[in-house]
Amino acid sequence: MSFADVRARRQAKDARSLVGSSSSSGPKLISIEPPEPLFGALPSSIDIQSSPERGRGIYAKEPLKRGGTVFSIKPPIYVLSTKNLEHFCSSCISPAPPTGLKRCTQCKNLWYCNATCQNNDWALHKKECAAMQRWAAGAPSLDVAIPAEPIRCLGRVLWGKRKWGLDSVWTREMDAMQSHRTSLPPEAAESHTHLAHAVIRYLGLTAPEELVPFGINDAAGIVDLISRFATNSITLTSPSLAPLGVSVSPLVALVNHSCDPNAVVVFPRSAKDPASQEPEAQLIAIRDISPGEEIFTSYIDTTLPRAHRQEALSATYNFSCGCGFCSRPPAPDPREALACPKTCGGACPFPSEEDPLTRCVNCKTAVASTDAVLDALRIGQEALQKATHLQFSDLPKAQQLTTNMIPILTSAKALPSSHPLLALTRLRQSLLLAAFPSNLTQDALDGLIRASSASVTGLNAVFPPGHPTRALALAELGKLLAVDEPEPRPAAPGSSVFPPSGPARLRLACETLIRARDELLISFGEHNDGGEVGREVREMVVRVERELAAWGQGVRNVIEDGAGLKT
Ligand SMILES: C[S@@+](CC[C@H](N)C(=O)[O-])C[C@H]1O[C@@H](n2cnc3c(N)ncnc32)[C@H](O)[C@@H]1O
Question: Pocket residues for ligand 1 (CB within 6 Å)?
Answer without folding.
Answer: 53-57, 178, 231-232, 253-254, 256-258, 317-319, 321, 323
